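Q: What would this chain look like folded?
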Amino acid sequence: MNPLIWEQAYHFIILFYGGLTVGILHWACRAFQKRWKPRPGAAFVQDLLFWVLAAILTSAFLYYCAYGKVTLHGILAFGLGIVLWQLVFGEKLYSLFLQLYGIIKRIIFSQGGGGDAAKEKKQSFRKRRGFKH
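A: My prediction, written as structure tokens:
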């Protein structure tokens, strides 16, 4: 087979995995924001950090496989990686993430002992201070 075809296939595979990586990073940021609902300013900073990391990762993948050269098949591979991650794995892994989070939370907070006493103490403190929640 022609070496040019091998090189393009190599670029396609590397950039496909680059798209998957950016898709995973995007999913992680959205899962974090969906679960913990940060304030608008914190969400803005998180989005900004995501885009900076996505740009760095994209540059690194492009430099690794094509010395920074942007090609049509590279753009298609990268986009295909992102779309594939979102369609195939995104929502399924979010529910798994929530289940694992619940299990870990139960394990961590059940180890402390006296969870009900601590809760009552916190509630009585809140009542004394006049908190509504």
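The mean pLDDT is 82.
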